[in-house]
Amino acid sequence: MRVVVFGATGMVGTRVVDEASARGHDVVAVSRTGEGRSAVVTASVDVRDRVQVRELLRTADVAVSAVRPRPGEEASVPETTAALLDATAETGTRLLLVGGAGPLTSPASPALLVIDDERYVPPQWRSSAVASLAQLQVCEGHEAAWTYLSPPAILEPGLRTGTYRRGTTMLLVDGTGRSHISAEDLAVAVMDEVENPSGVRHFTVAY
Asked: Looking at the whole model, is its pTM more than 0.90?
């Protein structure tokens, strides 16, 4: 498949590019700077530029968004997300967005969102969690063929084990109460969904 990865130079994006390339897909790595691996096609595009994004997507089978706002620019997330949704709807391209854990329900109480549970979202992370909730709200009701992947509470570089658990819309925790996954294994989950679409709108993964 031809896979267009937006936010390709970030922690998640670089690993999605690597995972997709390792699986033999034709990858276009999109970022503000146009930097990327020598083995893939790169492009410098602002995701809010609907014209350029549409052109990139015309030959794509699927798009993956791993775009993350710079600190202090979390309010830009709804606009960026809406631009991607509009472009993929116009071109008929599937879109998988790697969002945040904020919109998930807390394992402690189904009536409580993770964004409001300080065990998983301490105050210093709240602005990012608010942005992820706003992002999912922009997706809901949009005509594009989108899927929203919420990572667990802790996402950081690590090892690629190729294993993970998949859940629905409740935060997954392990036997010690920890909610985590490596960025490498999140990329595995991303590409598993890309290759075998589940048809669900919102899901999560974790160890």
From this structure: yes
